[in-house]
């Protein structure tokens, strides 16, 4: 799978995370002990080991950061809440997540509960549109 196909695609100002690609890449990644700790223990929250400014030149920093926080060891709801938090940290207010299947109402509620801040989630089949409120000045 090429870098162009993986994870986050930018179309003009539109960002779309391909959740299935993240999970696939996460399965193939060689996990160190520290990766495993960051991936499965919620106590560590959204700490990434690399900042966006420290990733390799030519790579998509958003994709690399997302690959640090997505884990097959936690639920989809937690992973999606982590993606929302990452987007917020990167000051991305609107984006989409391409899912392998539509989410149930219970899963959408669980994502909002896990994220713990106001967020608008709109589902169109297997595409989840995420809107974060603008930060107050």
How many β-strands, per DSSP? 5
| Number of discrete helical segments | 5
User: What global shape is seen?
Assistant: globular
Radius of gyration, whole Å:
14 Å
Largest sheet: 5 strands, mixed
Mean pLDDT: 76
Tell me the series of helices and strands, N- to C-terminal.
EEHHHHEHEE
- What percent of residues are in strands? 15-25%
As laid out across the biggest beta sheet, the strand order is 1-2-3-5-4
Low-confidence stretches: 1-12, 42-49, 51-57
Helix coverage percent of residues?
Answer: 25-40%
Task: Write a brief caption for the model.
It is built from five helices and five strands. The protein has helices spanning 19-28, 33-40, 61-69, 76-89, 105-115; strands spanning 8-11, 14-18, 94-98, 120-124, 127-131.
Give structural notes.
Residues 1-12, 42-49 and 51-57 have low confidence and may be disordered. Helix 4 crosses helix 5 (105-115). The chain starts with 7 loop residues before the first strand and ends in a 6-residue tail after the last strand. Strand 1 (8-11) and strand 2 (14-18) form a beta hairpin. Strands 1-2-3-5-4 form a five-stranded mixed sheet. The chain has helices at residues 19-28, 33-40, 61-69, 76-89, 105-115, and strands spanning 8-11, 14-18, 94-98, 120-124, 127-131. It is globular, with a radius of gyration of 14 Å. The protein is built from five helices and five strands. The chain is of the alpha+beta class and 137 residues long.
């Amino acid at each position: 799978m090429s870098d162009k196909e993986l994870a986050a695609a930018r179309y003009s100002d539109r960002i779309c995370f391909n959740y299935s690609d993240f999970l696939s890449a996460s399965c193939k990644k060689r996990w160190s002990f520290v990766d495993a700790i960051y991936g499965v223990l919620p106590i560590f929250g959204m700490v990434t080991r690399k900042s966006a400014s420290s990733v390799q030149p030519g790579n998509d920093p958003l994709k690399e950061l997302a690959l640090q926080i997505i884990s097959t060891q936690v639920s989809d709801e937690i992973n999606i809440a982590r993606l929302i938090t990452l987007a917020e940290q990167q000051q991305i207010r609107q984006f989409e997540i391409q899912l392998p299947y539509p989410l149930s109402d219970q899963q959408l509620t669980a994502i909002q509960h896990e994220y713990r801040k106001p967020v608008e989630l709109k589902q169109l089949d297997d595409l989840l549109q995420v809107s974060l409120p603008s930060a107050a000045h």
